[in-house]
Write a sequence for this structure.
């Protein structure tokens, strides 16, 4: 085609772009007209102008034509021709894929994924991933999730921005797809290497909040299996903020507390992180008033780990409070036995000021539970004359809940 003919077609297309916007046309006729205009375009620069107009119309009837245009573009290749021609083809590919996604063209999945897989431009890959999410092309969720997991691991030290662009697209795709396999890599993106400027950590955190209702148990698996305590902390924090049912929160909270207790053995170097995981887990279980006996056993274990030092005092106090909130039979039995043990120690003059703090917290928990089995224990405690007035006052307050 000589230059004069190309110029004529370009002029005609430019005229149509203006005139069709001004003349009222029936919707079906509009689709036919623009499809013909696109077919008559002599180069990708002109095709881009037509696609811009088609994007404005947002008509699903264009989907077959857009898919055909994308297939043609794939055959012609994005990396052939002059730099200008390559730029025009890349721009056209982005627009076609974006519009197919916007139109939720379900049949476009395979073709879009081809551009995602083979594309070298990170913006194109990102747009393709987003489009796959919009059309819920679930056949490709696994590959997208694996790619995000790989990107999460380590940045390209020379220039990480291309990775960040692709990650943004995949995160949005996973949020749209709500695929099981996508939850963990999206969550891990919120704690990965990405810069604050990229916005990825915030984007993934928001996606997690939206996905967590369906995949909250995945956070429990992350807490149980991921080797990094910092990741476990972020996971339990996400559970804490979520709207998951209390039963599910408590189950995950027990997992996290168990992990913290196991990790604390031997006073490891990351003790501060482990303590944070422990404190958040305990707080979650107490705030939701978990009554499960398994939770009581975890609190009991913490009390038994008390070594008489300031280092373990706070854990023991919180655990005694937790047992009072829990109120299960296991909790009641343990609290009663602990009080009887303290009574014997008090008679022998062995209780310290620190012990008195623990006794008073223990009494507050017994009072909270109001178990009939505790009444006799309280009566016996009332007549341990060696206790100071503060403890005996707490004993009498606890007895009042029984009408005494």
């Amino acid at each position: 085609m000589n230059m004069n003919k190309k110029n004529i077609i370009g002029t005609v297309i430019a005229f149509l772009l203006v005139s069709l916007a001004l003349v009222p046309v029936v919707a079906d006729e509009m689709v036919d007209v623009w499809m013909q205009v696109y077919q008559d375009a002599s180069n990708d620069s002109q095709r881009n102008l037509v696609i811009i107009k088609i994007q404005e119309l947002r008509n699903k009837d264009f989907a077959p034509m857009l898919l055909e245009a994308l297939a043609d573009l794939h055959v012609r290749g994005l990396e052939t021709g002059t730099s200008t021609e390559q730029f025009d083809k890349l721009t056209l590919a982005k627009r076609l894929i974006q519009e197919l996604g916007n139109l939720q063209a379900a049949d476009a999945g395979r073709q879009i994924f081809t551009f995602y897989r083979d594309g070298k431009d990170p913006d194109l890959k990102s747009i393709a991933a987003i489009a796959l999410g919009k059309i819920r092309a679930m056949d490709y969720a696994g590959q997208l999730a694996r790619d995000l997991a790989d990107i999460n691991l380590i940045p390209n030290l020379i220039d990480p921005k291309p990775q960040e662009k692709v990650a943004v697209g995949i995160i949005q795709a996973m949020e749209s797809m709500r695929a099981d396999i996508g939850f963990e890599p999206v969550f891990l993106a919120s704690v990965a290497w990405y810069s604050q400027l990229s916005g990825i950590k915030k984007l993934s955190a928001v996606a997690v909040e939206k996905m967590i209702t369906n995949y909250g148990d995945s956070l429990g698996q992350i807490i149980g299996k991921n080797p990094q305590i910092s990741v476990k902390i972020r996971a339990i924090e996400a559970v804490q903020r979520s709207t998951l049912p209390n039963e599910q929160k408590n189950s995950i909270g027990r997992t996290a507390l168990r992990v913290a207790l196991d990790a604390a053995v031997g006073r490891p170097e990351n003790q501060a992180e482990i303590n944070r995981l422990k404190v958040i887990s305990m707080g979650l279980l107490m705030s939701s008033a978990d009554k499960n006996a398994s939770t009581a056993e975890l609190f009991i274990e913490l009390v038994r780990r008390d070594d008489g030092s300031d280092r373990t005092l706070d854990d023991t106090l919180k655990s005694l409070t937790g047992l009072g909130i829990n109120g299960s039979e296991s909790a009641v039995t343990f609290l009663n036995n602990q009080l009887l043990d303290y009574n014997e120690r008090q008679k022998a003059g062995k209780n310290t000021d620190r012990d008195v703090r623990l006794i008073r917290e223990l009494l507050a928990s017994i009072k909270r539970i109001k178990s009939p089995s505790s009444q006799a224990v309280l009566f016996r405690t009332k007549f341990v004359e060696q206790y100071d007035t503060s403890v005996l006052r707490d004993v009498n307050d606890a007895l009042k809940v029984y009408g005494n």
In short: The chain is about 75% helix and 0% strand. Residues 22-26 have pLDDT under 50 and may be disordered. Residues 200-225 form the longest helix (26 residues). The radius of gyration is 33 Å.
